[in-house]
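Appendix B, example 12.
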Amino acid sequence: MESCPCGSGREYESCCSPYISGVSSAPSAEALMRSRYTAYAKHKIDYIVQTCVRDEDHGIDIEATKRWSEKSEWLALRIIRTEGGGSADDKGIVEFSARYILDGLREEHHEISKFVKREGAWLYEEGEVITETVVRASPKVGRNDPCPCGSGKKYKKCCGAMA
């Protein structure tokens, strides 16, 4: 049998498939998060749309979502932490990291997602994407500095001219 893309270690048919197919509802915010990741991996955009809060303040660009889902190779989901989101709660937070390949580049989507329970069903409300600042491993080479390739020329007349 096929293992579930959500990383639970269970088979897809007994893990996220019942939620995505509409047979049952996700019992927790984390289960909804896992099933939404699986829906992205399996290009089930209708499920993504159905499990979002949709009102004047919360829209979804369906075409952009579909393109992202289909152009990406989904590698792994990692749940970092959860707050609330259980069967007795009305709100929950799930912080997660989703790794994927898009246009040949490895990417990571790190987000803190907020979920709400409405009429007994968990919905994705909004998320805060966590960006990581890239830090240079070595100092930046100035235009008039000697080129680090060792040619003896200024950077702007050597390797900097190619950039």
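Helices lie at 17-20, 29-41, 45-50, 62-71, 159-162. Residues 62 and 85 are 26 Å apart (CA to CA).
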